[in-house]
Write a structure and sequence with these properties.
- Helix 7 (about 225-240) runs parallel beside helix 8 and helix 8 (about 260-275) runs antiparallel to helix 11.
- The chain starts with a helix and ends with a helix.
- About 50% of the residues lie in helices and about 20% in strands.
- By secondary structure, it is an alpha+beta fold.
- The protein has three domains: about 45-135, Beta-Lactamase (2-Layer Sandwich); about 140-215, Signal transduction histidine kinase, dimerisation/phosphotransfer (DHp) domain (Helix Hairpins, Orthogonal Bundle), CATH 1.10.287; about 215-370, Histidine kinase-like ATPase, C-terminal domain (Heat Shock Protein 90, 2-Layer Sandwich).
- The strands form four sheets. Strands 2-1-7-6-5 form a five-stranded antiparallel sheet. The chain has a five-stranded mixed sheet with strand order 9-11-12-14-13, with helices on one face. The chain has a two-stranded antiparallel ribbon with strand order 3-4.
């Protein structure tokens, strides 16, 4: 073989090797799965199901649990990999008819340490006899509706009482029109009931305003001492009629960002409450201080006190510890609720300490206005020269 033939043979073998290598690499690339970057669609779907606020349960055609998330177990729909019997019966019916149904899945026995729930499920048919149950906790909605019904019922009752009383008193007044003494007596009672009705309407308006029906005014710097003095002035007549002595500490110079009128109303409500539940001849005191960046205004009485089981609820609307005593003193049952919302709308809170037979202390805590350090004195150039 000549030299040229050898060179051509080598070149041909090299080209053939390149071609075979390219074919092999192509087949190998086709056999290899493309490299994944990030989560797959299946990963995302699984995460959506597991992180959802609602419970999700997927059932097979025989009612067996194929998939469920943690929320479904928390709501009691799935226990030990078995679905609630009501949900399973509904799912079997939906699988046959294809009609979506609602089912009440509220646990019959409340779980330990948790409030009773209101759980509602929606059962839908999927493909080939599979079904999915979408479970939602409706507890907050049910509680809100119950609160609304109670509020409407309480308002209706509270309004009906003075209105009915005034109607009866007016009839009695007409019967004794020729007796000046009786006319004077019944007229005084009518005045008392009308004042009570007026207080109730005003406090309902205030409470509605505080709960967001009306925008609060722009907050301004309020002097705490002025709030205390005005609240004491408002409560002076009630204190005098009950022979209650009101005392207070020295002016503090403290300030808060707030609404002056609302803060006076809240503090006056606490004073009225303390006076109403204190024995005649006792004392009610107000103190104020700054603690941890908050201004604290405390109203202390030496009255009958509040039992521990009532202390959590005294700030609820229309809640009364002693209904007979509250009606006798003309209370509306809204005063402490207003105090709570005034404090909350100022970024603060109200707390209670009480012991039966000893008395009670209600403390309003409002963020204090930080004290600005005095500006440094600028010296003239010639004064600073040496």
């Amino acid at each position: 073989m000549t030299t040229a033939a050898i060179v051509l043979a080598i070149l041909a073998a090299f080209v053939l090797g390149l071609a075979i290598g390219a074919v092999v690499r192509g087949k190998r690339r086709r056999r290899q799965r493309p490299q994944q970057h990030g989560p797959t669609v299946a990963d995302l779907v699984h995460e959506v199901v597991q992180s959802g606020h609602n419970g999700v349960v997927v059932l097979g055609e025989f009612g067996d649990v194929l998939l469920y998330n943690t929320r479904a177990a928390e709501l009691g729909v799935v226990t030990d990999n078995r679905v609630d019997s009501s949900a399973r019966t509904t799912a079997e019916r939906v699988a046959r008819t294809g009609v979506t149904e609602q089912v009440d899945l509220t646990p019959q026995v409340p779980q330990a340490g948790r409030a009773p729930q209101a759980v509602l499920g929606e059962v839908r048919r999927l493909l080939d006899g599979f079904t999915v149950i979408d479970v939602a906790d409706q507890s907050d909605t049910v509680r809100l509706e119950a609160t609304r019904r109670d509020f409407v019922a309480n308002v209706s009752h509270e309004l009906k009482t003075p209105v009915g009383a005034m109607a009866l008193l007016a009839e009695a007044l007409l019967d004794y029109v020729d007796d000046p003494a009786e006319v004077h007596r019944f007229a005084g009672k009518i005045l008392d009931e009308s004042n009570r009705l007026g207080r109730l309407v005003n406090e309902l308006i205030s409470l509605s305003r505080l709960q967001g029906a009306e925008r609060l005014p722009e907050l301004q710097t309020v002097k705490v001492d002025e709030v205390v003095h005005e609240a004491l002035h408002r409560a002076a007549l009630a204190a005098e009629s009950h022979r209650i002595t009101m005392t207070t500490d020295e002016d503090s110079g403290l300030t808060v960002d707030g609404d002056h009128s609302l803060l006076v109303t809240a503090l006056a409500n606490l004073l009225d409450n303390a006076i109403a539940y204190s024995p005649e001849g006792s004392g009610v005191s107000i103190s104020r201080r700054e603690s941890g960046g908050y201004v604290e205004i405390a109203v202390t009485d030496r009255g009958i006190g509040i039992a521990r089981e009532h202390q959590e609820r005294v700030f609820e609307r229309f809640y009364r510890v002693d209904k007979a005593r509250s009606r006798a003193t003309g209370g509306t049952g809204l005063g402490l609720a207003i105090v709570k919302h005034v404090a909350a709308n100022h970024g603060g809170s109200v707390r209670l300490w009480s012991q039966q037979g000893t008395g009670s202390t209600f403390t309003i805590r409002i963020p204090a206005v930080p004290v600005q350090p005095p500006a440094p004195v600028q010296l003239a150039e010639h004064e600073g020269a040496l």
